[in-house]
Each structure stands twice: as C-alpha cells, then as structure tokens.
Amino acid sequence: MGRGRVELKRIENKINRQVTFSKRRNGLLKKACELSILCDAEVALIIFSSRGKLYEFGSVGTAKTIDRYQRCSFNPQDEHVNCETQSWYQEVSKLKAKYESLQRTQRHLLGEDLGPLSVKELQNLEKQLEGALAQARQRKTEIMIEQMEELRARERHLGDLNKQLKLKLESEGYNPKVMENLWSSTSAAGTSNFPFHPAQSNPMDCQPEPFLQIGYHQYVQAESSSIPKNSMTCETNFMHGWML
After folding, report:
1. What residues contact 32, with CB distance under 8 A and at least 6 apart?
2. Mean pLDDT of the region 49-68
3. How confident is the model at residue 201 (pLDDT cuts 50, 70, 90)?
4. Coil, strand, or helix at residue 44?
5. What is the dihedral angle through the alpha carbons of 15, 18, 20, 23, rounded to the nearest 10 degrees?
6. What is the domain partition of the chain in residue ranges?
7. In this structure, which of 70, 106, 158, 233 has its CB flanked by the most CB atoms within 10 Å?
C-alpha cells in the first residue's frame, strides 16, 4: 500500500514537530543548493525556527542577494516617485511663469511699467487696447438697443391697454372724446372754481346754492311731487367722479 496524503496542519506533538522541521529544513536547503547548481541561479534561503534560530543558504552570499533584491524591488518605485516629483516641479514652474506674464500684461494694460517695452511691443499693446475699446462700445450699443426695444414693447402694451379701456367705455355708452374734452376743460379751470359741498346728514337741511351743470339736464321738479325744493337742489349739486 502507498503512503497516504498528509494533512497540512500544525503538529501538536512537540517532539514530532521538531523532527519534522529538521527533516524538511534539510531537504529544503538541499533543494535550494541543487537549484543553484543545476540552473546557475542565484538562490538565497532564510529560515527561522520556532525558537528563533536562523538557518540560511546563499549561492553567492545571503547579504549580496538581499542587496540585489532591494535594488530590484525598491529602486523602480523611487525612480517613479522622482519622475513624478520632477513632473510636478516642471508644471509648477510653468504655471508660475504664466502667472508672472499675466501680471506683467495687466500692468501694461493699466499703463504701468511701460519703460522696458520696445516700439513694436507698444504698438501691439495699442492694438489690444483699441480692440478692447471697440468691444466695450459694441456691447454698450447692444445694451442700449435692448433697453429701447424693451421701452417700445412697454409702449405698445400701454397702447393696447388704452384701446381696451376706450372700447370698454364705448360699450358702456360713454363717448371717450367728450370725456377727454371735459377732462381738459375741468383741468384748465382748476378745482378752485368749484365749491366743495360737505355731506349733509339730512337732505332736508340742504340750502339752495349755485351749481355747475355739465353733460346732463337739470332735474325739473314735477308739480305733483311732494319732495321739497331744497332737497332737489342738493341732488342736482352732485357730480359723478368720472366727470371731474
């Protein structure tokens, strides 16, 4: 019968564990040595026991192999970091130079530090200022045109409202032209020509006073009417608000 498969787990028996460690350690060191000889490979093997004892093998020396491993493992990362740092430094330098150039251009546009400029640079600066001035004037003209269009639209809207009011007055039986003439005449005469009549609590106490008749006939009292004449006089003194 063949040997059964060994289950990979920690050996609880201390003696058996130590024996197994010794056997497998020697076999591993032997295999590392054979690999380095047969394949001409640089092999380094480091083993620490459970008690902390060191076992090592190096075909060309363990320290030399470790140094080579560190150079191969860490130097590429360092080079990558250095390249990235150099790239950022170049980017910062470009941005700094661009910022200084923009500041210098701004001072030139404001008329400062013009001494070091040559004739050609001054001509270019003059062209830039003329172009900026033309754009500013064009924008100002556009804004003024927009405001004029807005005022015209408002004027048309008010005209439409005026037409609607005239149509409404005509539908109610009022003549807009007569009302306009009446308003003009009353405005020219002033309000001082029309005496103010305070409200009376009792219509019978009203006294006959001169009144102004505009736009309608005076009410004539019938002979058979029993309403006093003084009361009729008070009623004829009343004028509608739209006629003033």
Report:
1. 43, 45, 57, 59
2. 89
3. very low
4. strand
5. -130
6. 14-76, 87-116, 119-180
7. 233
The SS3 of residue 46 is strand
Does residue 194 contact residue 212 with C-beta atoms inside 8 Å?
Answer: yes
CATH number of 14-76: 3.40.1810.10
Work out the angle between the directed axes of helices 119-171 and 62-109 (0-180°, nearest 10): 70
What is the reported pTM?
0.33
CA distance 185 to 181: 6
| Measured distance CA(90)–CA(96) in Å, rounded | 10
What share of residues in the chain are helix, strand, coil (percent, to 5)? 65, 5, 30
Beta strands in 17-139 (DSSP E): 44-48, 54-58
Q: Which helix (H) or strand (E) holds 106?
A: helix 62-109
**What residues contact 45, with CB distance under 8 A and at least 6 apart?**
28, 29, 32, 56, 57, 58
pLDDT at residue 138, as a whole number: 92
